[in-house]
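Consider the tokenized backbone below.
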């Protein structure tokens, strides 16, 4: 059987969908209840304009950048407006038209969704945002035995932070006797091989891919990126099948995958799994399965979960809009890549194309998903089913082999624990200005600081300061336990390392899923509200440092770290894979395998984009 053990969804990118829903009337005619204005309303606060995806089809036809189309014109019940939009009786084609008219590409790679008119105030209440229920959903307490050895290919697209957890998982799978191949970008070859795993290079230019990762490779940040990004996506897709069944260019050892582990930005993995008739298991470092508990990390919902809204109506709306945010992001991605996917299916895999209305980038709901974060930070949503696991953060021990420079060790021993500030490999537009803000904030709060230069040019000082150490590179698992608090961009891996080290955390998000992690940290009470990169000022940073130094914040950080110490995300991921693996390795010959594939249901039949709207049932 073609076990589409799970189809991939997507990740981040700056697209904005702005829904300002107003009911036009209380009549039963769906077409008269919610109307999308055909005029283009331009966001005057933005420096450039873009055509909304309303009339554009694939993303390569988008010209404008910040057009905003509002839903409806007349006054009335906003609640009724959105309810009608989600009503299953409204024709699917009409809803797709609405989404395309409401979606716009913005230069920060996100989707904006506004919970319609409540007028209610929003207050943050850290004390009432403790995790709920059973953290592990029994995955760690279950007696799950290893399965017989398989040849497993892990297809991972993204940054070093995206690849590193899978290196840790792959090493653990090898302990159980499996042969593990990690297919990823060429620039990670040494990293993968040094960890003892097999490597296979995915297509695409590593330099271009490095720029794409700011939105996880799903959605272009602007029109200028569309053609380039589509070329990279096509290059990745065309190497997926060889990654599953071809020898590595420098080796003659045959390989044929018995199972695929992948993350959503790998795009065509679902279709390769269908072609090969092997199980697929999706793992990701950010939420991709629809839930009512928080919006899609690549969306921007004005009244997000984690906040107490004074109006119960507004709260209920927030739940529906949270679910809708996943469906909108999915629809936008599918509209942008459906031609590439169908070309791949027809020419490379000899499979039937997916029709416009039956397609979706979201995986079939029966495909297992494992999410790589601590359930003590983001508990498993109550509306996620049994085939979805929150396995814990997956750490790779790098500290034990690290030799720190003597100057760093001496500086750390000279005084109190410092504040760490670093933004990794992110390009910074004004590194000198940001450096001065950091220095001034440290001086104002009387703190020592470590500034990680990264790739963005941070830390250029006219004269060296004794209270500041400029760092080139250092494993987080070695450095963060020696820091009082950390300030960073909010990547999932960096966030995990800081919290594990008992560090109160300030997130300065730049794009993608980083605001989501900044909000999670704040909701959990171990950090201040995130500071968007374009709002990074001395005053905001001073307030953030003072917040992190509060004893009660440190206490919560220690409690969270202690809870995380009882987790083993790597083991949890491996257990989840074993738990959902469909059965013993097939011994069938080629003829019987072809027969089984002929009888099996194609991947795209399990889940249709038609089911995205108006569906309130649990996922998975």
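A designed sequence for it:
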């Amino acid at each position: 059987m073609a076990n589409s053990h799970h189809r991939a969804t997507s990740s981040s990118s700056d697209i904005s969908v702005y829904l300002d829903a107003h009911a036009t009337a209380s009549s039963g005619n769906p077409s008269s209840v919610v109307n999308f204005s055909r005029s283009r309303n331009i966001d005057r606060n933005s420096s450039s304009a873009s055509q909304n995806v309303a009339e554009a089809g694939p993303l390569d036809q988008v010209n404008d950048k910040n057009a905003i189309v509002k839903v409806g014109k007349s006054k009335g019940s906003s609640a009724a407006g959105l309810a009608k939009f989600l009503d299953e009786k409204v024709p699917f084609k009409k809803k797709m038209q609405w989404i395309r008219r409401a979606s716009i590409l913005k230069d920060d790679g996100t989707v904006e969704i506004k919970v319609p008119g409540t007028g209610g105030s929003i207050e943050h209440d850290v004390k009432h945002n403790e995790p709920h229920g059973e953290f592990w959903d029994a995955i760690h307490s279950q007696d799950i035995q290893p399965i017989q050895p398989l040849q497993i290919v892990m297809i991972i697209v993204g940054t070093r932070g995206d690849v590193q957890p899978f290196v840790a998982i792959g090493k653990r799978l090898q302990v159980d006797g499996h042969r593990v191949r990690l297919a990823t970008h060429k620039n990670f070859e040494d990293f993968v091989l040094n960890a003892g795993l097999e490597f296979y290079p995915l297509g695409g230019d590593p330099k271009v891919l490095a720029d794409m990762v700011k939105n996880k490779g799903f959605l272009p940040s602007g029109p200028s990126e569309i053609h380039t990004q589509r070329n990279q996506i096509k290059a990745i897709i065309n190497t997926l099948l060889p990654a599953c069944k071809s020898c590595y260019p420098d080796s003659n050892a045959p390989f044929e995958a018995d199972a695929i582990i992948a993350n959503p930005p790998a795009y065509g993995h679902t279709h390769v799994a269908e072609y090969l008739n092997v199980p697929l298991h999706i793992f990701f470092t950010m939420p991709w399965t629809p839930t009512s508990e928080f919006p899609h990390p690549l969306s921007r919902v004005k009244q997000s979960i984690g906040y107490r809204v004074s109006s119960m109506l507004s709260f209920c709306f927030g739940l529906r809009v949270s679910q809708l945010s996943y469906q909108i992001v999915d629809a936008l991605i599918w509209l942008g890549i459906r031609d590439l996917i169908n070309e791949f299916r027809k020419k490379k895999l000899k499979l039937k194309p997916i029709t416009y209305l039956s397609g979706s980038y979201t995986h079939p709901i029966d495909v297992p998903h494992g999410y790589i974060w601590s359930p003590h930070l983001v508990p498993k949503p109550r509306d996620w089913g049994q085939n979805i696991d929150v396995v814990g953060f997956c750490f790779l021990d790098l500290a034990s082999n690290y030799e720190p420079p003597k100057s760093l060790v001496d500086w750390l021993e000279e005084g109190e624990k410092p504040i760490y500030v670093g933004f990794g490999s992110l390009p910074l537009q004004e590194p000198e200005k940001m450096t001065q803000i950091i220095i001034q904030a440290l001086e104002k709060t009387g703190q020592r600081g470590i500034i990680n230069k990264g790739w963005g040019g941070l830390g250029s000082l006219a004269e060296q300061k004794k209270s500041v150490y400029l760092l080139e590179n250092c494993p987080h698992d070695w450095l963060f336990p020696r820091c009082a608090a950390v300030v960073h961009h909010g990547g999932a891996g960096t966030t995990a390392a800081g919290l594990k080290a008992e560090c109160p955390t300030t997130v300065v998000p730049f794009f993608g899923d980083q605001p989501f992690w900044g909000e999670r940290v704040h909701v959990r009470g171990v950090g201040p509200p995130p500071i968007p990169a374009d709002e990074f000022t001395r005053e905001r940073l001073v307030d953030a440092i003072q917040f992190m130094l509060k004893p009660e914040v440190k206490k919560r950080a220690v409690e969270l770290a202690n809870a995380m110490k009882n987790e083993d995300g790597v083991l949890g991921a491996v257990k989840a894979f074993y738990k959902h693996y469909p059965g013993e390795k097939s011994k069938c010959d080629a003829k019987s395998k072809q027969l089984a594939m002929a009888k099996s249901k194609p991947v795209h039949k399990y889940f249709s984009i038609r089911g995205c709207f108006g569906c309130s049932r649990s996922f998975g």
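DSSP finds 20 helices and 20 strands in the chain.
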